[in-house]
Write a structure and sequence with these properties.
The strands form 10 sheets. Strands 5-4-3-2-35 form a 5-stranded mixed beta sheet, with no helix packed on it. A 5-stranded antiparallel beta sheet has the order 19-18-17-16-34. A 4-stranded antiparallel beta sheet has the order 1-30-29-28, with no helix packed on it. By secondary structure, it is of the alpha+beta class. It is 30% helix and 21% strand. The longest helix is centred in the first third of the chain and has 26 residues. The N terminus is likely disordered. Among the domains are: 156 residues, no CATH class; 445 residues, Methylamine Dehydrogenase, Chain H (7 Propeller). A hairpin with a 2-residue loop joins strand 32 and strand 33. Helix 9 runs parallel beside helix 11, helix 11 packs parallel to helix 13 and helix 15 runs antiparallel to helix 16.
């Protein structure tokens, strides 16, 4: 009888039937250990089919009832040794390997199960097996099984490996290394344990141990793609780009769909001038992202969703040459709808390929001819020897001063609570309730003191005649206090507020406001007398005619014609976007962004007469699938023209750059992927929200810092020249500390004025998952810049009481509200009042505050770069717009200069890159620099 088809009749040899009856009786009595002994005796005495089935029964008991995973794996392997095509043995082995992080080893068993044509009575089990074919999917978490195994035997190697993989994913690198080492001590054949140790050491920055680990690797480690990826990462830190590329290439020959290796190799080849070769791997990374988005949609629908989603998955898998997976999912779909013509056509097309050489000799589950790495030969690119000195860099002195901040919101009269629209607490969580409100800093009355505009939510559904909750404008009186002047300023914004942008729309030198709402954005023009008027309709902007969910926005001269333009980031769409309530097995939850279609961003170009035209479609901004939350407008490649960076949620980030192919008209091209900012360095689109811009490593090039979702690292995209960027989050020390936070607003600022930009991040979850052990409220994080391109988090006890509090932080804007020359911040929140953090750092360097006025273009001078030189120091700063998540910073440059200067030389490179030099500007002063004027204007200092 065929192996795995049934049980009756497989114990035909004399004596076996008695042993089997006794084993089954022991099993019914719960005497599982005794049953295993008896099944083992059956296996010893029986023929191949009998032995395979007995080993399988024994293995299942060891796995499911006794939590003896290592012994279970051995029994499954024995069953397959005597019956290679035994379905249940192959299925069981695949599951054991999956829960211990060894999907790669499970590939042969998965193929045998699929090829057998056998199905399972449990749809969930069959789907699990299909998902195991994605060898890059990580550990299959079965925590109850793993914990039970370790409670029985603390050195159970299979359980140790599974939990080590979970530790690694969750950023517990020391625990991951320890568990993997213990597993390897028990079972030297656990190759994945070796690579996991290396990954943990690399992530933790334990470089000396990593070098020692590498020195002890056996020759067989060259067959592990992760070992090659670790080698590539190490060479990247040593700035050995050719060697890193060689290592990633070796990994991809073994594992064609390794996300990090594909994206990393694509970036490296591009930066090394091999554009065509690079594109193959960047395209592969993009294909992997498409596949992930389909999987997310399937998971959000409870596991599978519609057969149309399965059809899309099959099509994407086939496109990528993953024939076995495409065939397996198509076969599953056929079992649910035998009449589907696409299923029959797909199976007829794919089945003959399964045994062909192209598939049978492939690494993993991808056809050889569809593996881009096999069309490239980088064998001549050598691998240098490893040494700690090659990556450690020069030692940096410890901080002599520590930044401190004080919450002055109440003392300064800046008291504001955001209302997120839940008039009645009905236990539901609607999608729009997580974003919070934005903040803009502007000097609306031109008295030199920065004022604050805060966006407010409202009762849902929105009714603009309901003015119980409206946006607020706080005037800075200059005496340490703010006053609410909303009504006297003529502002009555009763929409559901999101982000805010401040900028000079009409070029009169006075800042205006654009407010992004959920439905119906607003434009308020400054009347220059302390009041505003609503110019939305007169400007030609859609206003209430647009029901989009707008999040962030920016005002800048994006097309370079001298007039202000407006970029609006839109998030999600769909007919039930604001009404759908989602649930999981536990309770009502907020829905997920991949459950809704993306909304298209909008670009409005100013005509110079106060009106705008929507050029979204013809300009190239209508890129598909953005789901944007944050935006920055800046000159990111130093060519004198502005780019737009959009942080997208669960989708690749956008970078819009002037399209050189359009000779006679303005247009933008989306270049996020090729510029290195579309995905993380691991080749993944993340839940991106906040954005900070600045020269983080002091090399004269602009860098981008992006906050991301829980269990994703925040990302530092370092400028590497020619408008390209590289993910240096791990090297900069910004990765592991962000894994267990969910970041929103962020800004670079030089808290101690030493010339190096520090970093602030505000955090908080989108919903309360504390019932399943996930953090909800979170603390604000401050990272000190060590001066070598690396950051270190400072302890909350040092920074001030605010940093010891946990709350749901959202927007974050930078300003110097008390004009003491030290940067301060405003943080908006969902569950606590808005926070005004005053910088109280005691020992600081000197500073320079610059207000820039352009005359050769739009007067806000967005994109202007300033180079400051003094006492051997040279630093580059840029004036930007958009400013990240729902925020608009004070439109000045506050420059930290260290403590060794009295005056500095300032070179200004205006938009369009006309250059101007101002010599001997006295430090610790505020200066206004006007394009074309030789003399800087010193502003009166506030009275101490």
């Amino acid at each position: 009888m065929a192996a795995g088809v049934g049980v009756i009749g497989w114990w035909s040899r004399p004596g076996i039937d008695e042993l089997l009856e006794e084993a089954q009786a022991a099993r019914r009595r719960g005497e599982y250990g005794r049953a295993v002994e008896l099944y083992d005796r059956v296996a010893e005495r029986g023929g191949p089919d009998q032995s395979a089935q007995a080993h399988t029964q024994s293995a299942l008991l060891l796995l499911q009832s006794l939590a003896r995973l290592d012994e279970s794996e051995k029994r499954f392997r024995r069953a397959i040794a005597v019956g290679p095509d035994h379905v249940e043995a192959n299925r069981g082995l695949a599951m054991v390997l999956a829960i211990s992080g060894r999907r790669w080893e499970a590939v042969p068993s998965i193929r045998r199960v699929l090829r057998s044509g056998a199905t399972t009575s449990s749809e969930g089990n069959e789907i699990d097996l299909l998902r195991l074919m994605d060898v890059g999917g990580g550990v299959q978490l079965e925590s109850a099984v793993l914990d039970a195994a370790l409670s029985r035997d603390r050195d159970e190697p299979v359980a140790l490996m599974g939990l080590a993989a979970v530790d690694l994913k969750n950023g517990r690198f020391a625990d991951a290394v320890d568990r993997a080492r213990r597993a390897l001590a028990v079972r030297e054949d656990l190759a994945v344990a070796r690579s996991l140790i290396g990954r943990g050491l690399l992530e933790a920055g334990r470089l000396e141990e990593l070098v020692a680990w590498h020195r002890q690797l056996p020759e067989t480690a060259n067959r592990d793609p992760w070992v090659w990826v670790i080698r590539g990462e190490f060479q990247l830190r040593a700035e050995q780009n050719q060697a890193a590329a060689r290592c990633f290439w070796e990994a991809l020959k073994l594992h064609p769909d390794h996300r990090r290796a594909n994206y990393g190799l694509g970036e490296l080849l591009r930066n090394l001038g091999r554009e065509d070769d690079a594109q193959m791997f960047l395209d592969r990374a993009a294909d992997l992202q498409v596949l992930k988005e389909i999987d997310d949609l399937m998971m959000s629908a409870g596991g599978i969703g519609s057969l149309e989603l399965v059809r899309r998955k099959v099509g994407q898998l086939e496109k990528m040459g993953r024939t076995w997976e495409a065939w397996g999912w198509a076969r599953w779909a056929g079992g649910r709808d035998a009449s589907a013509q696409w299923v029959a056509e797909t199976l007829a097309r794919l089945e003959p390929q399964l045994d062909g050489e192209d598939v049978a000799t492939a690494s993993g589950l991808t056809r050889r001819t569809m593996n881009p790495a096999l069309s490239l030969d980088l064998r001549d690119w050598s691998r240098p020897e490893w040494s700690v000195s090659s990556v450690a860099g020069d030692p940096v002195a410890s901080a002599t001063t520590m930044a401190t901040f004080r919450d002055d919101s109440v003392a300064a009269g800046l008291e504001f609570d955001f209302f997120k629209g839940d008039v009645e607490d009905d236990g539901q969580r609607r999608m729009f309730e997580f974003t919070g409100g934005g903040v803009a800093v502007l000097d609306y009355d031109a008295d030199g003191w920065p004022d604050v505009y805060l966006a407010q939510g409202t009762a849902w559904p929105v009714n603009r005649s309901d003015t119980r909750h409206t946006d607020r404008l706080f005037r800075n009186r200059g005496d340490g206090r703010f006053e609410d002047v909303t009504e006297s300023a003529g502002l009555e914004e009763a929409g559901f507020g999101q982000g805010v942008a401040a900028g000079d729309i009409d070029g009169d030198g006075w800042p205006d406001l654009h407010v992004a709402n959920i439905g119906g954005n607003r434009l308020y023009i400054n009347n220059r007398d302390g009041t505003f008027h609503d110019a939305t309709e007169a400007s030609g902007l859609p206003g209430d005619g647009d029901a989009s969910w707008s999040t962030s926005c920016a005002i800048a001269d994006i097309d370079g014609d001298g007039h202000a333009d407006i970029y609006v980031v839109n998030y999600l769409s769909g007919p039930d976007l604001f009404t759908r309530v989602c649930r999981d097995a536990m309770r009502v939850r907020m829905c997920q962004p991949f459950q809704f279609p993306a909304a298209t961003d909008r670009l409005y170009l100013g005509r110079g007469d106060g009106t705008f035209r929507d050029v979204t479609n013809q300009s190239g901004v209508d890129a598909a699938g953005g789901k944007g939350l944050g935006v920055v407008v800046a000159d990111l490649d130093d060519d004198g023209r502005l780019e737009v960076f959009v942080a997208n949620d669960t989708r690749a980030n956008f970078l819009f750059r002037s399209d050189p192919a359009r000779k006679n008209e303005f247009g933008l091209g989306e270049v996020g992927l090729t510029a290195g900012v579309g995905l993380s360095g691991d080749g993944r689109a993340e839940g991106s929200m906040g954005v900070a811009v600045g020269d983080a490593d002091g090399d004269g090039r602009v860098d981008l810092f992006v906050t991301n979702f829980l269990d994703e690292t925040n990302t530092l995209y370092t400028g590497i020249g020619r408008g390209r960027f590289s993910d240096r989050s791990r090297h900069a020390g910004l990765a592991s500390s962000s894994l267990k936070t969910l970041g929103f607003g962020t800004q670079f600022l030089d808290a101690d004025l030493d010339g190096d930009l520090d970093l602030l991040v505000t955090n908080g979850h989108v919903d309360d998952y504390s019932d399943i052990g996930r953090p909800h409220r979170m603390a604000t994080q401050f990272y000190r810049n060590r001066g070598d391109g690396r950051f270190e988090p400072l302890e909350a006890a040092v920074l001030g009481p605010h940093f010891e509090e946990k709350f749901l932080g959202r927007g974050l804007a930078r300003l110097d509200w008390n004009r003491d020359g030290r940067p301060d911040v405003i943080i908006t929140a969902l569950d606590v009042p808005t926070v005004l953090l005053s910088n109280t750092t005691a020992e600081t360097g000197s500073s320079l505050v610059l207000r820039l006025v352009a005359t050769g273009g739009h007067r806000d001078a967005i994109g202007t770069r300033v180079r400051v030189e003094s006492a051997g120091m040279s630093r580059v700063f840029e004036l930007t717009s958009g400013d990240g998540y729902l925020a608009s910073n004070q439109r000045v440059l506050l420059l930290g200069l260290g403590d060794e200067v009295a005056a500095v030389r300032v070179e200004v490179m205006w938009p369009g890159r006309a250059s101007q030099v101002f010599d001997e500007l006295t430090v610790d002063r505020e200066w206004t620099l006007v394009e074309g004027r030789d003399r800087a204007i010193s502003l009166p200092r506030p009275i101490e």
